[in-house]
Amino acid sequence: MPARFGGCSESKWDTSPKAFSYGVWRILEGIDGDPSEVIRKRIEFCLELGITTFDHADIYGDYECEAAFGKVLKDVPSLKSQIQVVTKAGIKLKSAKFPDRQVKSYDTSYKYLIQAAEKSLQTLSLDVIDLFLIHRPDPYMNLQETGAALNELVSSGKVRAVGVSNFRPDQVTYLNRELSQPLAANQIELSVLAQDPLWDGTLDQCQSLKMLPMVWSPLAGGALFKDDHKPVRSELELIAEKYQCDVATLALAWLMNHPSKPIPIIGSNQRSRIHTLATARNIELERDDWYKILELGAGREVP
């Protein structure tokens, strides 16, 4: 079965048509002291559920999540062969860790991307990053320079595949022209309430180029469960009853039923919640129900 991430043919890749990724951006929340045991148990629990991909970024947890996760991989190296690690770089935050930074900015220069990937390898205790993403489109990007950095990371064996996050289809096209190995993924915002990728060509491009659409904020950052969207939620509850699930699981199933096979990134710190959401992979929506959910989220019929 072909791997889903670019040139990577490692057998450990989750190549199933309905897969999840676990997002670590909040994994340190509410933890006092050494988080290693909590993180190890979270990894093992995800593996029990068939969730093998873990989504990182160098900036998560004010630049601390990668190191905490990497400590667990260093202490329990057998986990490395069971998981896929995705990480992102290119955002430079104002932070006490970088007191000289006066402004939040993006940096997709050759030097910065190489250094960022090498730093992530070190902090994550890895020999190779499975998928390395540019976190945001950079208005100051030099396409040739950025492409050269990504090519170098692949050819040197530091990363298996490269991708982007939050890129428009035209931006993907332009960057792909500079690459020896095409972009393997585009990590995008998509949910019942944030439907632009369905209409702006993003998911069409993913299908055409066989790129993996990874989805951040697949539950609209919790907005779906706020009072502003109570009428929408009430209608979704009726559909959810039909499929014997809750609204959140239905919302994920709606994404995963799309032909481009999006991979939602779930970031709950509650084991029971992770377990429930993972059942979305078992739900096959009828086409009319998929369109009902589309209409509810958009607030109007399709044209």
**Given the C-alpha coordinates, what overall shape results?**
globular
Structural class determined from secondary elements: alpha/beta
Helix and strand sequence = EHEHHEEEHEHEHEHHEHHEHH
- Assign the CATH superfamily of the domain at 8-183: NADP-dependent oxidoreductase domain
Q: Write down the CATH class of the domain at 8-183.
A: Alpha Beta
Query: Can you count the beta strands?
Result: 10
The unreliable regions are: 6-13
**Beta-strand proportion:** 5-15%
The number of helices is 12
Task: Indicate the radius of gyration in whole angstroms.
Answer: 19 Å
Mean pLDDT: 94
Helical residue percent?
Answer: 25-40%
Main sheet overview: 8 strands, parallel, barrel
Which architecture of the domain at 8-183 does the CATH hierarchy give at level 2? Alpha-Beta Barrel
CATH topology label of the domain at 8-183:
TIM Barrel
Q: Span between N and C termini?
A: 38 Å
- Biggest sheet: strand arrangement: 1-2-3-6-7-8-9-10
